[in-house]
Amino acid sequence: MIARVTAESHWRIDDVGGKTLGLVRLLRAGLPVPDAWVIPASDSRDEVARRRCLDALTRWWRDIASVWPESRWAVRSSAVAEDLDGASFAGVYETVLGVGSPEELAAAVRRCWDAHAADRAEVYRGERDIDAAGGIALVVQRMLMPDAAGVMLTANPHRPFADEIVIDAAWGLGESVVSGIVDPDHIVLQRSDGSVRHRRIASKEVETVYSDGLQTRPVAESRRTRPALDEAGIAALYAISRTVGTRIGQARDIEWAVCDGQVYVLQDRPMTAIPSVDPTTVFSRRWGDEYKSEYSLPLSSAVINSWMDIPLFVELPRLQKRADLAAREPFILFNGYMYMDGDYAVGMARSLPKGMREGVFSAWFTPMWLRHIESADWSPRLTLEIARSFRRDRDRAGQHANLAGMRHHGERVESVVAPLLTQDYRALDSTEWRRQYDELESMGVEHFRLLRWGMGMHNTMLHRLLPQLLAAWVGDDDGRLYTDLISGLPGTRTAQINREIYQLARTALRDSEFAAQIGTTEDWAALRRDTDDHSFWTRFDAFLARHGHRADSRDVAALRWREQPEVIFGFVRAQVLGGAADPDVGESRAAALRAEAMSTVLGRAGRGPLGRIRTGILEWAIRWTQEFTVYRENQRYLLDYLLAHARSLILARAYDLVEAGVIADADDVFLLTDTEWWGALSRWEGVGVPIDPEQLERRRQNYLTYRNRLPATYLFDDVETEGEIAEGDAPTDDDTDGLVGVAAARGVATGPTRAVTDITELADVRAGDILVAKNIDPGWTAVFPLLGGLITETGGVLSHGAILAREYGIPTVTGIPHAVSRFAAETVVEVDGGRGVVTVVEDPITDVIAGVPDGGREASAVV
């Protein structure tokens, strides 16, 4: 039966629900709360209990009307699973305002009971595996007729590690704020002292009030831009936040109202999806920014993981006598993206002296988790075992051996795998298909056995060592000499491809009519049909025969260039429209800069009594750094052969599975897990377990939902976050109006943005464009000679995009969140690759709205 809510109330959440207990918490904290009663959840569970409850409410109304005869009442749902740390149920259930009679009260109660069984509640509970059997409690609370109301969050959801409180305020009832029908005032307070860090007074055009019923009415012009909260109201809410933080807890969602100068608290619940300030578990996507950065379909993930994880995370720990790590899974898959386990990194750190750890792990984790890594006990024995592991794998580990091993591996890939790419894969019988698949598997594993030393140790170590030596011995504090020494290196497959695309563009430009057709066509296939006898197409086909195994992705499911020749045509078209920028010119310039830098380095280092030793060390470091920079790029070209072969082998059997009715479409094969894949092949051969089509559909929907989302960099206790640096007190340049990212390739460029989400969109790139992308793959670099600058959402200073940008001398800033969606087409920006700053110069959308002609305003920040 209905009972009054007081500070002395002692109920379980199963009895009265989360909202009721929230009111009890507020009353116990001594905060002003409007009078409230609760109808327990047990009254909602069957019709007999409901009838008894409604009869009791009639008697209750007679008593209460004598005390507050003119009052209106709110009936709010208080589910037994509501307002929990992981499930707020905000807005899922029903609230009825303005109840003014016993008949209205009975109708409101029935409405709230019925909402418990509504579809939206069922879906919400189902997603969180919450049982509906407990029923729903209801809160009956005296309604205020406030002057202003809103919501206060005692942590900033956009900057949860900042010391901030957020308040949204509007005129009238808070319903307009929580429902989103009004643009409220937005105030950010400093949590430590209550000072206003930010205040935005909105144009509050409507308000929700109660007057002969609940109404949304226009706000008078004179009140719209007046602050809904005065200084006294802000101070009162700050005081309430301090009380809540001390007596209830941190990160709370508080609904409030101001009535006759008094601030009341209407509701308290924990904020959800807020990362812990001291997380128990941390997972980082930083390690995977290169090889595991994209959304990974299940079978694609299984293939690349079988090649990569055994050499890197099973064999290597065993070589280092780390059976503890070899037995652990270092990654989790979260909405299709791979994250490294922070505890695994702590285990790795035990092999390194504490002074060496930050340089290794700071690129993967934030200072919060680095403290855990730094505190792990160091085992000198494990450090010794790392050194001994080189000997145990001496055929691959040493620099000479590793380079020779990659050359031999490359020769084998090009002699064994490359010729197979033109075979009729559908004609392979089961025995030959399995032989080729097993052979491919062994080559994939060998590829990463070499990379665990070549990329995991030598390349990383050399690119750390060389700039340190140059800074210490020749004064290269700005990194200019380092950049010049490793830029435009000869012998990369990427440079070869770009040169061949340039030659294709030159072939087209020799025929002015044909070049004009390329520049204007939207249908390359139609152009080909109309001009198939042109010599350009012979060269075009020859290019695809040589390099058609490439793609812009390491995903086995990704189309290869051979399957989407329009991509290459787009590269050529961009070159034709840009006048065909000769990559040899850039390479010659880079070679001259390299020679000049080498002369400067040796000249400066050779001075003094230790000059000969310094120059000898620097010559060694420069040579090997250059060798492994080329190695890094060329190994990817070889990997693409393996990925193309894997894709063709899998699709050959996928078509068989479609014919057998195992899957509906060939591309569905990539939605299968590794176990399902081999089980499906067994079923095709007469045995095996059927595939669940509903499971495949759920995976497909997950892929469509998350494939183009930039995932959070970290998971703190399974909550997505950018970490305490990015979201809290991020280091910024005080004197810049722009977006601050990572300085990846020096130089300053100004030009129009060209945001792309797919390789096929590169055909629209024009000379001088600032390319904006989530990340950059070597397969994209045919347009690099045309670019003025580059902005990416992810990738570090040793990512492919950053290395290639330095080679081409393209000013580059990485680590700009949501860059693709931030920058509209033709937004003119300045990219300062030395400082890592992007500043908007001209924004076409804002300029049109403001009536400002092109070029008519000063540089401004993107907010």
Explain the layout of strands and helices.
Elements (H helix, E strand, L loop, with lengths): L2 E2 L8 H16 L7 E4 L7 H21 L5 E7 L15 E5 L2 H14 L3 H9 L8 E7 L5 E6 L10 E8 L3 H5 L5 E6 L5 E5 L5 E5 L3 E5 L2 H4 L6 H17 L4 E8 L2 E9 L11 E3 L13 H22 L3 H4 L4 E4 L2 E5 H8 L4 H8 L5 H9 L4 H13 L1 H4 L1 H19 L12 H45 L5 H7 L6 H17 L2 H9 L3 H7 L4 H13 L18 H12 L5 H23 L5 H49 L14 H11 L8 H14 L7 E3 L2 E3 L1 H5 L11 E2 L1 E4 L2 E8 L14 E4 L15 E4 L7 H9 L3 E3 L4 H4 L5 E5 L4 E6 L1 H7 L13
Parallel strand pairs: 21-22, 22-23, 23-24
Antiparallel strand pairs: 1-2, 2-5, 3-4, 3-5, 6-7, 6-12, 7-8, 8-9, 10-11, 12-13, 14-16, 14-17, 15-16, 17-18, 19-26, 20-24, 21-25, 25-26
Helix pairs in contact: 2-3, 8-16, 10-12, 11-12, 15-16, 15-24, 16-24, 17-23, 18-21, 18-22, 23-24
Structure notes:
The protein contains 30 helices and 26 strands. The protein has 863 residues and is α+β, with helices and mostly antiparallel strands. A hairpin with a 3-residue loop joins β10 and β11. The protein is 47% helix and 15% strand. The strands form five sheets. It has an eight-stranded mixed sheet with strand order 19-26-25-21-22-23-24-20.
